[in-house]
């Protein structure tokens, strides 16, 4: 029986090679594969760490969260004594900065608030659990073409303006990693 199987192995290998080469020969548009750009895990962790470090140097214990282009948490760094709610608030600020920064071409949650981007008059968007129009979120953009890569949210300082200042300073310091 093994003798009969040997001739099939080269034929099977040839069939697999043909199918693989055919798959690579097709144009990307017909491949049904979607790719997205985002920070890699090490850049996301470094950015969140830097935001926490900047706030800590000012005496603020904060949580910093990076969301990627799917809106999911990619990195979360928290100081040792952050309030419990800072975990969810940092995520929501990052999510809002990313999703609404993308939709309305704004760079921070403060810019969104200043532009009156808080949703329809009936407040329907404010009922989405992930959305939080509070200062402290920054839209992450690639340096070369300003493509959106995610969002950074900081929470825990005594005021969203302080959270946002730490986030912005961290982004400016590490911007060269967003190429």
Provide the β-strand percentage band.
5-15%
Chain oligomer state = single chain
Mean pLDDT, to the nearest integer, reads 84
Using the alpha-carbon principal axes, give the shape.
globular
Query: Which ranges are low-confidence, i.e. pLDDT below 50, for 5 or more consecutive residues?
Result: 1-27
Strand order of the largest sheet: 2-1-4-3
H and E order: HHHEEHHEEH
Total strand segments: 4
Summarize the amount of helix as a percent range: 40-55%
Structural class of the secondary elements?
Answer: alpha+beta
Our Rg estimate from Cα atoms comes to: 22 Å
Main sheet: strands, sense, barrel: 4 strands, antiparallel
Number of helices: 6
Termini, distance in Å? 58 Å
Written description of the protein model:
The protein is α+β, with helices and mostly antiparallel strands. Helices cover 45% and strands 13% of the residues. It has a 4-stranded antiparallel beta sheet with strand order 2-1-4-3. A hairpin with a 6-residue loop joins strand 3 and strand 4. The radius of gyration is 22 Å and the shape is globular. The chain starts with a helix and ends in a 5-residue tail after the last helix. The N terminus is likely disordered. InterPro entries: GlcG_carb_metab_protein, PduO/GlcC-like, PduO/GlcC-like_sf.
């Amino acid at each position: 029986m093994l003798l009969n199987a040997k001739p099939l192995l080269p034929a099977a290998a040839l069939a697999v090679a043909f199918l693989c080469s055919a798959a690579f020969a097709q144009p990307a548009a017909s491949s049904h594969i979607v790719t997205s750009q985002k920070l890699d895990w090490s850049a996301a962790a470094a950015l969140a760490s830097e935001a926490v470090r900047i706030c800590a140097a000012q005496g603020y214990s904060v949580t910093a969260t990076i969301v990627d282009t799917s809106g999911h948490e990619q990195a979360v760094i928290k100081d040792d004594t952050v309030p419990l709610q800072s975990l969810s608030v940092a995520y929501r600020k990052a999510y809002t900065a990313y999703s609404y920064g993308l939709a309305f071409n704004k760079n921070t949650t403060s810019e969104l608030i200043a532009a009156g981007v808080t949703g329809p008059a009936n407040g329907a968007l404010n009922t989405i659990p992930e959305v939080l129009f509070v200062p402290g979120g920054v839209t992450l953009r690639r340096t070369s073409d300003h493509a959106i890569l995610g969002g950074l949210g900081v929470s825990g300082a005594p005021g969203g303006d302080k959270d946002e200042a730490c986030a912005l300073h961290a982004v400016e310091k590490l911007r060269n990693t967003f190429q």
